[in-house]
Amino acid sequence: MKSQQYHPRVRIVKEELLSDNWYILNKVTFEFEKNNGQWETQSREVYDRGNGATILLYNRHKQTVVLTRQFRMPTYRNGNETGMLIETCAGLLDKETPEEGILRETEEETGYRINRVQKVGEAYMSPGSVTEILHFYVAEYSEDMTTGGGGGLEEEQENIEVMELPFAQVLNMVESGEIRDAKTIMLLQYAQIQGLLKVKSKPLHILIAGPYRSGTNDDHVLIEKNVNYMNEIALQVYEAGHMPVLGEWYALPLIATAGSTALGDETFNRIFHPSSIRLLDCCNAVLRVGGPSQGADEMVRVAKEKGLLIYERLDELPLV
User: Fold this and answer.
1) In terms of DSSP H, where are the helices of the chain?
2) Which regions span the lipid bilayer (predicted)?
3) From CA 187, how far away is CA 119, in angstroms rounded?
4) In this structure, what DSSP letter does residue 291 have?
5) 230/244 Cα distance (integer angstroms)
6) Per-residue DSSP letters for 97-127?
7) Distance between CA 263 and CA 41 in Å, rounded?
8) Of 23, 122, 159, 233, which has the highest C-beta tally within 10 A?
């Protein structure tokens, strides 16, 4: 849990430790300023079990997702006859970033070693009593990513069944109530809304991001080679049914018209990368190609912030 933040309408009066047998349960007494300016004393039990991450693994070509099933005692005590719950892979973070944590949990629980995830959000799952923030991810999986059977760690008493199910079936399981786990429902609905599991999709407007000047020492022949390579990739993207674009297609004519006289001069720098950043607002996705490039990596970073799809190989593109 993050360090205590100060808010002028909240005064912590006292904290009492009720239990630290598994995680930390405190009784917090505090004063809260109401809208009418009066202060009111309240007490709440606060359970701190750290933060967590969850992920939906999906395969577009098979139209399947990977879920887990395991026994959950709290649900058994509250209406779940068997105590078994179908869920997306998830786990608590262990002094690591959310992305590091979900990569570890994915391999431990499902047996898939994925190399790239996409964060789609985060949420407080039970804000009335639990401090936990859950980080949500999606990632594509394939059979060549399998490293084992999964099932969790024996020393943590995890007995996890790995389930590969058709996407259409799991949506019906949500509707019927067979799937009742909140994080799982949220990620399945995200996949449905975003069309992640559609084999056929509408054409995407895809920015091709690769090296332009990087590694060339501003040699015009090498720069031209980089551009030709990206143009060739763009043609393949077009033939796959999508609409490609290079930032260079917009930036270079503008730079020349604006009077730039040399690579990296003030006019060049004012237009080259900023125009590509602006172009991202008109794109659905980014395809990162070629070798090292700070500029291309910046395009990917900004695209992630904007919630765009990120691809690293042509065969990852959805079929049209």
Assistant:
1) 73-76, 98-110, 167-176, 182-194, 220-239, 247-257, 266-280, 294-305
2) none
3) 11
4) S
5) 10
6) -HHHHHHHHHHHHH-B--S--EEEEEEESST
7) 65
8) 233
Q: How far is CA 171 from CA 13, 59, 65, 138, 168, in A?
A: 47, 15, 11, 16, 5
Amino acid present at 89: C
Asked if residues 248 and 273 have their Cβ atoms less than 8 Å apart, the reply is no
For residues 211 and 272, what is the distance between their CA atoms, to the nearest angstrom?
13
DSSP count for the chain of H helices, then E strands: 8, 14
Written as tens digits, the pLDDT of the chain (320 aa) is: 555 668 899 999 999 999 998 899 999 999 999 999 999 999 999 999 999 999 999 998 888 999 999 999 999 999 999 999 999 999 999 889 999 999 999 999 999 999 889 999 999 999 999 999 999 999 999 988 988 766 655 555 467 899 999 898 999 899 899 999 999 999 999 999 998 886 556 799 999 999 999 999 999 999 999 999 999 999 999 999 999 999 999 999 999 999 999 999 999 999 999 999 999 999 999 999 999 999 999 999 999 998 888 888 888 887 77
Distances (CA, A) of 133 to 37, 136, 307: 30, 10, 20
Q: Which candidate, 29, 28, 23, places its Cα nearest to that of 132?
A: 23
Helix (H/G/I), strand (E/B), else coil: 156: helix
Terminal Cα-to-Cα distance of the chain (whole angstroms): 44
Residue 125 φ/ψ, nearest 5 degrees: -90, -25
Asked if 207 contacts 286 with a C-beta cutoff of 8 angstroms, the reply is: yes
pTM across the whole model? 0.61
The answer to whether 140 and 58 are in contact (CB under 8 A) is: yes
Residue 213 token pair: 């000047």
d(CA 143, CA 26): 45
Q: CA 69 to CA 254: how far, in whole Å?
A: 56
Which of 105, 107, 102 is closest to 117 using CA atoms? 102
